[in-house]
Amino acid sequence: MNDAKLLTTGLSGLNLALSEKQRNKLLAYKELLLRWNLTYNLVSRNDSHRIIERHILDSLSVLRHIKGKYIADIGSGAGLPGIPLSIALKEKEFTIVDRSLRKVRFLRHAVLSLKLENVGVESWNLDGSHPRDKTDASGRHGQTPVVEFDTVVARAMSDPQNVWKMARPLIGCNGQLVIQCGLNAEPPKEFPGAKLVQDTTLANSDSEAQHRALVLKKHKG
C-alpha cells in the first residue's frame, strides 16, 4: 500500500475527513522527517518505514480531545503531535515547544516548508533544568513564558505527574492537558490543581501504536 492510500485508510479509521491539500501536507511532513532524521535522530530508526501509522496517525488520534483556539504542544521533539494536529485543525493557533535547539531548528524549517501559518515554534525550557543545547542568540532559551493556552498536549514526554507539573503554568482557567502515554502508564489518582476527566485507550490502524490518552481539566484559580 502506498503512502497516500495508507494515510487515507488510516484517516478513515479515525473518522477524520481531511482535504487533499491537508493530506499532501501530512505526506510532505513525513518526507521531511525521513530526510532530517538521517542526521537529527528525530524518531527511532526502527520507525522509518512506518512514520504514517506510528507517528502521524497516532498524533491525530487525540484530535477529538483538542478544545479551544490556542493550543500548545510541549516536548514536541519532531513536531508530534503538534504538526499533524495543526494541519488538521487549521483554524486553531498552535505553539510547538521543545528545549532542544537542534529539534527547534527542524521544527522551524518544517513550519516554513509546509507553510503552516497557524504555528509558532519556541525553545522554552519548562522543567527548570539546564538546557541540553547552548542558548540561542536571543537569550530566550529557558525563560518562563507568560502565556495561557486552552489545551496543552504532550506525547510520550515523561510520566504524567511530571508532565502536569510542567504544563500547569501554561494552561488557562478551565483549560486542559492531554497526555499521550503508554498502555502501562500508571497515572496518580490525584493531580494537584486538576481533575482527571478522561482515561481512554486509543488506537489507529497500527495495533502496536495503541496508547492511552489522559485528559486533565485544570481547576479554577
Write up this protein.
By secondary structure, this protein is of the alpha/beta class. It has one domain: Vaccinia Virus protein VP39 (Rossmann fold), CATH 3.40.50. It is built from 6 helices and 7 strands. A 7-stranded mixed sheet has the order 3-2-1-4-5-7-6, sandwiched between helices. Helix 2 packs antiparallel against helix 4, helix 2 packs antiparallel against helix 5 and helix 3 crosses helix 4. It is globular and about 45 Å long. The chain starts with a helix and ends with a strand. About 6% of the residues have low confidence.
What is the topological layout?
Blueprint: H1 3-13, H2 20-40, H3 51-60, E1 70-73, H4 82-88, E2 93-97, H5 101-113, E3 119-122, E4 149-155, H6 160-167, E5 171-181, E6 194-202, E7 211-218
Parallel strand pairs: 1-2, 1-4, 2-3, 4-5
Antiparallel strand pairs: 5-7, 6-7
Short descriptors:
alpha/beta; Rossmann fold; 6 helices
What would the average pLDDT be, to the nearest integer?
87
Number of helices: 6
The CATH class label is Alpha Beta
- Cα shape: globular
Q: Provide the helix percentage.
A: 25-40%
Tally of discrete structural domains:
1
Structural class: alpha/beta
Distance between the termini: 51 Å
Per CATH, the superfamily is Vaccinia Virus protein VP39
Give me the count of strands: 7
Largest sheet: 7 strands, mixed
One letter per element, helices H and strands E, the order comes to HHHEHEHEEHEEE
Beta content: 15-25%
Strand order of the largest sheet: 3-2-1-4-5-7-6
Instruction: Please name the CATH architecture.
Output: 3-Layer(aba) Sandwich
List segments where confidence is low: pLDDT < 50 over at least 5 consecutive residues.
129-142
CATH topology: Rossmann fold
Alpha carbon gyration radius: 17 Å
